[in-house]
Description:
With 387 residues, this protein is an alpha+beta fold. Helices cover 35% and strands 26% of the residues.
Amino acid sequence: xxxxxxxxxxxxxxxxxxxxxxxxxxxxxxxxxxxxxxxxxxxxxxxxxxxxxxxxxxxxxxxxxxxxxxxxxxxxxxxxxxxxxxxxxxxxxxxxxxxxxxxxxxxxxxxxxxxxxxxxxxxxxxxxxxxxxxxxxxxxxxxxxxxxxxxxxxxxxxxxxxxxxxxxxxxxxxxxxxxxxxxxxxxxxxxxxxxxxxxxxxxxxxxxxxxxxxxxxxxxxxxxxxxxxxxxxxxxxxxxxxxxxxxxxxxxxxxxxxxxxxxxxxxxxxxxxxxxxxxxxxxxxxxxxxxxxxxxxxxxxxxxxxxxxxxxxxxxxxxxxxxxxxxxxxxxxxxxxxxxxxxxxxxxxxxxxxxxxxxxxxxxxxxxxxxxxxxxxxxxxxxxxxx
Length: 387
């Protein structure tokens, strides 16, 4: 029944997804998207509340029988990326597009809402629908938690439509699935001078450049070879003129890991390398910022096995797809740490061509991923509550 209903609502989800794709909104500014979600929920008679301090929406579907509570989540925000493709539903907002599939996530969860309302009398418990704002900026799960919106939730389930997974396939595996991600900033202090007399100065650019290179040895020479980690310097800001020795440089970086212990170990390793490298050039290094960001997304063996059972019952055994963990971050990890849950990847990659990467101006999804996502949302919720 779930599958039949999902296919029945496919045209509804495609229309919604294309509307959202044409009218993308950046993180924490999803005002019209949030209004659209609320209008659709009102049509279905599903009560909802806005999460204060965000444009997130939490809706509640109470089943016909008593039981536990599960939350299903979809993120809503777009990215500051210019759309380079030319689909009939191309973004109408200059420099903004849905380049990560969140338009599909929102449409699919609204499709799942229709299915769940159709089958409400069979539901043994409560299903919460969390339409989340600002995922690309670290999300608003923590805000929802602080405001009490996660109270009483026993489990959560999240889907990401993923272009590298062929449409028709789903990746549901135990262990780390997405990386923890931290941010840091280093300030390198030297001494300014004229470019013709570098001996009179201390070149912060040279020191900073060497620090960038030396930090790469953390992954290659300090981490256990089987561990996975990344140290990326994404921004280097320095200098005021072409003919002046820079007296200061700012390095802004990003750290990725699956092992939570690395979040504490990284700053120690970074400071040791940066301070000693800077000293070799008579400069100084100081870590002026370190933010522990979203933790790693880690599925338990039990939850992954249950998810695989639901998927194979719904779509058949050949639907499961083997995909390695991703180094991308995902704030759904916070939700999972708070209440327990499962995170899976639904194939959105076309079968007839090479998919464009996520966060790329040519990104798009195969829209058959919508009915599959909606069906999986609904089926997982029903089966979890039944269990």
